[in-house]
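Z., the sequence and structure:
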Amino acid sequence: MTGTAKERETSGRPRYVPIADHGLIGDLRSAALVGTDGTIDWYCCPSFDSPSVFAALLDAERGGSFHLAAAVPARTKQFYFPDTNVLITRFFTEDGIGEVQDFIPIDGVSAEQRPQRLIRRVLCVRGSVPFRTRVAPRFGYGALPHTVRLTGDSAIFASPDLCLALTATVPLETDGGDVRADFKLAEGETAVLALDPCAEDMSAYRCECGEAEREFNATVAYWRRWLSSSRYKGRWREMVHRSALTLKLLTHAPTGAIVAAPTTSLPEEIGGERNWDYRHVWVRDAAFCVYALLRLGFSEEAKGFMGFVSRHISPGDCKASGPLQIMYGIDGRTDLSERELVHLEGHQGSAPVRVGNAAAEQLQLDIYGALIDSIYLYDKWAEPVSSEQWDHVTALVDWVCENWDQPDEGIWETRGGRKKFLYSHLMCWVAIERAIRMAHRRGLPADLPRWRATRDTIYRRIMHRGWSESRQAFVQHEDGDVLDASVLMMPLAMLIAPTDPKWLSTLDSLTSELVSDSLVYRYDPNTSPDGVRGDEGTFSICSFWYVEALTRAGRLDEARLAFEKMLTYANHVGLYAEEISHTGEQQGNFPQAFTHLSLISAAFNLDRALG
């Protein structure tokens, strides 16, 4: 049994902490998950998509972790320092109260210039509290060996691909390949443990209590300064701002990329195989994030993503999947080959664990609408797009005009074969319609006759072949009668009036078949096989789309109740995964950008409708 597993056994820690029992910290380059018991069991360094250093969330035995908690039985509570992404875990013992302040320092300095370090600041706030820590890195997703050596108050963990230095203000000792320490703090006393990538100058590793306090204050000031740009003053402000702070954590400052989630392979069903790597830049997800953040008044992230698009997404590089890939690496790379890590058992035995994502090669036509809609909003709310960016837009729209009628894998990335999905057609309509608006507003050159004709053809096609007379509803794909929650975007994208009789009939059908106490399933896999075994939970972005559709239909009492119910499924610090199980547990990668951006949009529109 490894040191990690022994620590969990002696501390009474469950073998796997539930997905929802975590908070997220980060520095706009990478992120770490901290359990409510004070253990970091997910951390990739130096970037979101780097191999893991701590991954006990995916394998309690082999994944590695950074345990830091009271050494005696304790009740724990976890919360964010107000208006920041600094996480605090408190330990309530018989003899006192202690807390661990976890953060990755950030102070507004360029991400490329700022050294990366993870700081764990331990305080005793009342009485006295004994603490215990074990630092058990497992490099390369737990596959690479490492050595450890003590040098004064530092420990150096060296593997073939990465070297990390742990410094502490308490005595350290080695235990096999791990490092541990036991120490006791009295009221008012502080200890610090910091983890840094190795540098030539050993003095650079030192992190005394005073320095940790300065880093803490600078990081708090950064997050509060960033959040002060929010223009949102409505209801549910705390939840909206927590979602905004979470989306900000998922941005990669050096490139402007926005990842879908900071984790890989957290299961959509415990024991199932629906486990995917979300540490990449989905064009759709990132574009929707831009919309949500622009809504609140944050334009810096939109500008960063537009820069990413301009640098890495060239419509001239046409492939079988179109001029855009559906996703890219955070550095813009296009090769995201998928492989399975067979040596890891997966969260609670949910194999396989995957890195990379084979869906990158799929054709998903809806991404063109998501991207061009975000460019339209950026041009309208932030700053005018450049002539080069407009040339890219026109090239993309011309391609959509030529190719919108192809079958594709759709928004849900089905591995069950291509179809002519209504949502894909809807977003092709959005791509052309928003580009026409931009051309009109700014007098930009465009093949407007062709664009208008194609836009109108797509509209009539959706109304004719996307409508099922037998179901009296808009359905998932042509020549079928399967209901799909993605059609909730029809009134949100303004293709159809939210009170149109056909739409209201569709909304009633969705409510009857896909909604369970305000929670919305994407579709029924039994009637629409997607090529992957197993079941899944309700999809949280669909639940927030449902709130917004009810809002726009004028059904405000239903919308507000559904929204308030959705808020009860957030975890203890306001975070959401991708899905919610039938027992209310968070499922899938965590936290999920899709869910948080849709919460912001639903709250914004519902609050405005309520007045």
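Confidence is low (pLDDT under 50) at residues 1-13. The longest helix spans residues 422-442.

Let me know what you think.
H.
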